[in-house]
TrEMBL record:
Taxonomy, superkingdom: Bacteria
Keyword Metal-binding in record: yes
UniProt source species: Pseudomonas syringae pv. pisi str. 1704B
GO molecular function: catalytic activity; metal ion binding
InterPro entries: Pyrv/PenolPyrv_kinase-like_dom, Pyrv_kinase-like_dom_sf
Record's keyword terms, sorted: Metal-binding, Pyruvate
Gene3D superfamilies (alphabetical): Phosphoenolpyruvate-binding domains (3.20.20.60)
Protein known as: Carboxyphosphonoenolpyruvate phosphonomutase-like protein
Keyword Flavoprotein: no
Amino acid sequence: MAIQGGAMNTSQAFRKLHERNELFVMPNAWCEGSARLIQQLGYASLATPHA
């Protein structure tokens, strides 16, 4: 599931991931390149680090 669109659509899609009866993996992207790779690999969501 590629998430595109406004913040409301993103929020709703993320909530739906949590409502499913299965686990999902949320990899952590450190830079734009790793975020693009995660998207190309088909992950439904990604995490970002905070300093």
